Amino acid sequence: MHSMIKSSNNIFRNVLNKRQIFNNNKASFRFYSSYNNYQYFNNNKNENNNNNKNYFKDFMTIGIVGGISLAIPSIAFCVECFEEDDEFITQIKTGFKFPKILSAEYPFNIVNIGSRKLSFINMNVYSIGFYINKDNAKNKLNEHYSNQSKEDFCNNKVEIAQDILDKGIGVTIKIRPTRKVNWGHIYGGFQRSLIIMLLKKYEMPLDEIEVLMNQLKSTLKPTQEISTTESIDFIKNDGLDPSLIILFNNKQVLEIKDKRLANCFFDFYLGDNTKTPEARNQFFENLWSIFDHDQILKNNIHHTLTNPI
Fold it and tell me: For each successive 10 residues of the chain (309 residues), what is the average pLDDT?
């Protein structure tokens, strides 16, 4: 077992070196237009229900770590516009209504709405609503960021994202599929990245990662269909020892009591290696407004809400 972990870590370091080379050339690999699609898409069609340890170790040491050289799907976004009423923000192109306040149990405020799209096949995957505990965020971020200009604030994304995670500020991501998918597709979209982050950030043993990932995978049956009228919420609750709480159609289906997994999940969307870069940028632009009571950001039809948090 120890030799396997050592071998995996060596492969992992090699992969990180390759990714560093790739990132150094990231200007050539941005996906804001359709012709810049150099990344290879692994659609994870072979995902199945086999959770035994041999499969997991083989997957880790051969499939996943080696497969990291296959880039995550490229992301592109179209210009968006929204409508607003007292309770909801509506994404016009999908008709999806996102509540301004997540729920009575989790009174988090909506920050922004984005979309994830596979640009090379022009397919919208899902819409995303980003939420945060506004009062908690303002209280815990105020000292360091309240006097910053919007430009300076947005240039501190990495530091601010880490403070959100470290200071126990509740955040939520609400996913609304734009076409019928199943849970296996949703889970497969962040499986590899989460394992790599847990290895890199926390140096977790593979056995521990296996347990966490199997828990996350068990949220729903892999073949459970998720229609365009349904939603999945991923919640990191307030507090310094948060859980990752998952709601399906507004009902809790799972709670994983592990701060590391909760932090890595939101780092997947808010961190430097996000797969939704424009939605992430808009999140920080709108978050800045909580420090200015007189700030009113008007709807400019580009990933902006009429009245953000």
Answer: 43 41 35 30 41 45 32 38 95 96 97 82 86 96 92 96 96 96 94 96 96 98 96 97 97 98 96 89 94 48 48
